[in-house]
Amino acid sequence: MSTRYRVLRYDQRGHGLSEVVAGPYDFPMLIDDVLGIWGELGVKRSHWIGLSIGGMIGYGLGVHHPDRLHTIIACDSRPDAPPEYAAYFQSRIDKARIYGMEGVVESTIERWFTPETLAANPPVLDRVREMIRTTSLAGHEGCCEALKTLSYGLDLHRIPVPTLLLGGDKDKGAPPHFLAEGARKIPRGEHVVIPDAGHISALENPAAVLAAIESWLERHPDA
User: Fold this and answer.
1) How confident is the model at residue 222 (pLDDT cuts 50, 70, 90)?
2) Kind and range of the H or E element at 164?
3) Position 133 in a domain
4) How many domains, the chain?
5) Which domain holds residue 63?
6) CA-CA distance, 156 to 103, in Å (whole number)?
7) Is residue 67 part of a domain?
8) Is residue 20 part of a domain?
9) Half-sphere exposure (CA, 13 Å, Cβ side) for 92?
10) What is the CATH number of the domain that holds 49?
11) What is the DSSP letter of 220?
12) Could you tell me how far CA 29 lies from the centroid of its own chain?
């Protein structure tokens, strides 16, 4: 895609090469990070593509800063956190505090990927394991705290820009029927199911995800 578009990627606060900042984090804070990056780089408007928490940030941008967006593509991203979802992330926080990040590696892999991918155990899984393992405790906990407070479900009707919700057909955290319901609440929302994929659809079926994204951007070049 970088041959056709100016692509900007960044590491979430507390993740990758970004600064480790003590939490808790919340979505207004994560959205401010994006606006700060765009401000530094002179980005006035952009298409937004985010997976999981990245797509959730996209919902927040769509609700509160739609003038900064052409479109949103939210991949495997639910818009709110019911009690059982919030409890899951609290359990991750608790487990990581006791056992370190190593303690949440395998349970996360099992939640994110399909049984078929787990059985095949391709090399990409080891790269994901290392990504989880090397994430800072503060970054992990901060984002888990943000995920516990996710609450854009009742505001989806306020997103005016074209919005694509796509997700794996076997995603446990953001199942297809849930994303389809979310898309119906957004005035210009659409939903695409990615076959043979779980929560990290871009890794399990990259060809289908790329095709959906490219088709969307061709239909909405500067919506």
Assistant:
1) confident
2) strand 163-168
3) yes
4) 1
5) 27-219
6) 35
7) yes
8) no
9) 27
10) 3.40.50.1820
11) -
12) 16
